[in-house]
Amino acid sequence: MDFNLTASMMCANYAHLADEVKQLEDGGIDSFHIDIMDGRFVPNFAMSLNDMNYIASATKKPLDVHLMVEHPYNVINLFLKGLRPGDTVYIHPEAEYHPSTTLQAIINAGMIPGIAINPGTSIETVMEMLVIVKKVLVMSVNPGNAGQMYLPYVGKKVKRLLAMKEDMDFEIHWDGACGADKIREFAPKGVDGFVLGTTLLFGKTKSYGEILKGIRELKF
């Protein structure tokens, strides 16, 4: 079964970031997830533009940049110029006055446009955006901090999106509290990728390679 595994780099060991990137890459990670937080849209500060630029310089793997910031259009060019064609940029539609304009800027720069949907954001409020984007990042926890508890009602939202994704041509990616149980349940149903953080990947005794191999060998 083919699905994408992305490392949530806000959970990495920043005392050894170069080693973290190399070990994840050698271990078989598919891409690197960069959480940018401004302390306004979410009640936390996380990674920075400089963090993103360093990781982009340290790997040839794709980057998934998740902008948890107010009015991302005001800063989008700062991030786009540090990325490569084919990298993904997610915005939160409710953080922008005209999200379609920001998404178009992402498309014009040769990046993959995406939206992130908070647990409390209904599909109906982003329906028009689903026609534009190529990826939908479904938040199974409220954004802003690692290690939060899964919100079970998000599963119903994922199932609704799965019924729509083929006709509207977008991928679905899971972010938050992602354990092996979530991958076993939702990968066979068609979820295309999973963001891995402290629940499954970081802070464990096994190597990243062993963990990623074990995930890919899960029995479905």
Q: In total, how many beta strands?
A: 8
Q: For the record, give the distance between the C-alpha atoms at the N and C termini, rounded to a whole number.
A: 9 Å
Rounded mean pLDDT score: 94
Query: Structural class from helices and strands?
Result: alpha/beta
Helix-strand string: EHEHEHEHEHEHEHEH
Q: How big is the Rg?
A: 16 Å
- Helix fraction, binned, reads 25-40%
Describe the protein in words.
The chain is built from eight helices and eight strands, in the order βαβαβαβαβαβαβαβα. It has helices spanning 17-27, 49-58, 76-80, 99-108, 127-130, 154-168, 180-186, 208-216; strands at residues 4-8, 31-37, 63-68, 88-91, 112-117, 135-139, 171-175, 193-196. Helix 6 links the parallel strand 6 and strand 7 (171-175). Helix 1 (17-27) packs parallel to helix 8. The longest helix has 15 residues, at 154-168. The chain is globular and about 45 Å long. The termini are close together. The model has no long low-confidence stretch (mean pLDDT 94).
Which characteristics define this entry?
220 residues, alpha/beta, eight-stranded parallel barrel, 8 helices, 8 strands, 19% strand
Layout of SSEs?
Elements: E1 4-8, H1 17-27, E2 31-37, H2 49-58, E3 63-68, H3 76-80, E4 88-91, H4 99-108, E5 112-117, H5 127-130, E6 135-139, H6 154-168, E7 171-175, H7 180-186, E8 193-196, H8 208-216
Parallel strand pairs: 1-2, 1-8, 2-3, 3-4, 4-5, 5-6, 6-7, 7-8
Helix pairs in contact: 1-8
